[in-house]
Amino acid sequence: MKMSKLSILNNNGFVVLLFCCITGLFFSCNTVYDIAPGYIPPLEAVQKEDIEKMLAQGNYLDAVQYINRIERSRNGLLKEELEKLRNQTIDMVKADFQSSMDKKDYEKAIAYVDSAINIGEPALFPGWSVKKLLMMQAELQEQQGNDSVAVLTAIKAMKHETLTNSEYSHILELATKLENKTAILTVIAEMEKRHMPIPEPARVITSKITPIKKVIDGTVTIWVYKGIKFENGVGMPNNIVGSGFFIDPRGFILTNYHVIESEVNPQYEGYSRLYIRLSDMPDQRIPARVISYDPVFDLALLKTEIDPKYIFSSIGETSIDPGDKIKVIGSPGGLENTVTSGIVSATGRRFLQLGDAMQIDAPVNPGNSGGPIIDEDGRLVGIVFAGIEQFEGLNFGVSIEWINKVLPRMFPANSKDLSEYIATPITHYWMGCAVEKTEKGMEIIYVVPGEPAYNAGLRGGDLITGINGKEFKTLREIQSLMVSYESKTLLAVSCTRDNEAYTAYISLSPRPRVPVSLALERDSKVNVIYPLFGMKIDKVADEVWNNHYVVRRIIPGSSADELGLSVNDPISIREWFIHEKLKVVMIQVMVKRRKLGFLETFIQLLSFLETTNFI
Q1: Residues facing residue 239 across a β-bridge
Q2: Which three-class secondary structure state does DSSP give residue 239?
Q3: Given 13, 253, 321, 573, which residue has the most CB atoms within 10 angstroms?
Q4: Are 157 and 134 in contact (CB under 8 A)?
């Protein structure tokens, strides 16, 4: 593991660092002062310069977050000076909002209006609402030929506010043109509440049951040719086989990221060429290219220059419950047009960094990855992404709920000319802390140094009681909210600390590919043990080189809990092993189990680097 370097400060720098630590504002000490020996800059000077630097760099929401923390701490800048900086920040936010509108950058404009609503200041943008901006964004997407995305954006607007009758009618017309049964049903449900007439073509589509043969026409086999590999001196083709399906009439295909990873992974240095094979032309190789990808949800969007015979209805709301019948279409072992059936065995499986997965019992084998999961009416309800070879019938898929949250961002803004387009990863946003549901509530168990929650003053042990005025009872609910943000946005996070309530403004930042890896770079490994293994430990003594600890807390169901560790067990850490390729981390510890009369035992704790508790 590459360790971060620790700068050696001179005497004056050490004094400044010590002063900042005492005031609890260590994160703001990012300015180098050319000062006389022994001089300590006033706290208000440090704070003012930090805010001015954020404004100069265009980090306006970060400045709002910082001002809010100063107000809560009641330490530093005078009220008058703080009010002046706040007004300056607001003026810059308004100017940047107008600039975004002039450029038709509705994603950024929506983030500003949403931020103002979240912190209780909707009057900052009079006449504007998230719904209005979303409908303008949908109109632009339609003009650019992104009809599929325009429908999803408009449906998102419906959740914010009631639309006009003409807007409902237009969305239904667009969904009908796409024959998107799921979206049509979603819009019709809202129109019927308002006693609006439903056009007959839309009714006809909703009453049809799509034949499985037609659905197969919308699936493809993905081939990634990686040259020749040698085994026992014999050369053989090194191919990756997967599945995919059309989700747009312009030839866009959805599949798994892990199937096409060699095409976009900068660490891969070998040969890699991507092709698809159509269901009715299995011998013809058709070139394809990666447009965008999302390693977190294992999704990738491809583009081919062909007109699909069938398009999957990937837009709209489709519920899926345990026991529901499903079908899986794919190319296991390269055998095209294979259809298997089964049921949804369970939902809510925590196998992803964000969100969750559905468990299915339909037979799935290598080559099925990226294939569609459909319900009895032929509607898309998920995408296959994993199976466990040792256990027959134990397979998993990403549900349509998470696909719909990510898919709009995967399409290029202008798909008419992609000759020089470079595949781009999807950016998710986060607060930068790990959360677990404990007996106390939604508890923060770790805060990543330098990230939004840390900069806003949140600490381990704080309880999140609400976000933007809404209560969240599960980690899944919070992560669903995080995934919905497409740009840097300001949240109002309500917390309690030692039974005292406070509200912090948190300016979201881009989420790292693997949060734990970032935490290990910036923090002591011992501190990261808690979110990794569910075990909070403290040193027995204060000596720097002391390696003896005592367990202070165990999270139920965690790795530490499953190995039988308990509170007050003395332990010593022997070795750390981090395997970046396998994405696992392991520690070896010597523990004296209190339940076994302090019998000394050597154990190993294992955890995936891609933990599921960060938001």
Answers
A1: 225
A2: strand
A3: 253
A4: yes
Strand 570-579 relative to strand 548-554: parallel, antiparallel, unpaired? Answer: antiparallel
Contact 219, 329 (CB under 8 A): yes
Phi, psi of 544 (to 5 degrees): -60, -45
pLDDT per position as a tens digit, 90-129: 999 999 999 999 999 999 999 999 999 999 999 999 999 9
How far is Cα 84 from Cα 540, in angstroms, rounded to an integer? 48
Phi first, then psi: give them for residue 494, nearest 5 degrees. -90, 130
Q: Does domain 428-510 have CATH number 3.40.1710.10?
A: no
Please give the backbone phi and psi of residue 419, each rounded to the nearest 5 degrees, phi first.
Answer: -60, -35
SS3 content of the chain, % helix, strand, coil (to 5): 35, 30, 35
Residues in the chain: 615
Query: What is the value of pTM for the model shown?
Result: 0.88
Q: Does domain 520-608 match CATH 2.30.42?
A: yes
- Three-class secondary structure of residue 313 per DSSP: coil
Residues assigned a catalytic role: 258, 298, 369
Tokens of 156: 């998102």
- Distance (Å, rounded) from C-alpha 538 to C-alpha 527? 9
For residue 312 the two structure tokens come to: 């999957």
- Per DSSP, the three-state class of 181 is helix
Extended beta strands in 357-440, E state: 357-360, 372-374, 380-387, 395-399, 424-425, 429-430, 433-438
Closest CA to 25 of 88, 79, 56, 67: 67
Largest CA distance in the chain: 82
Judge whether 595 and 583 are in contact, CB under 8 Å.
no
Q: Measured between alpha carbons, how far is 423 from 264 in angstroms, rounded to an integer?
A: 7
Q: What CA–CA distance (Å, rounded) separates 343 from 327?
A: 8
Domain map (residue ranges) of the chain: 11-103, 130-208, 209-426, 428-510, 520-608
pLDDT for 266-317, tens place per residue? 888 888 999 999 988 878 999 999 999 999 999 999 999 999 999 997 655 6
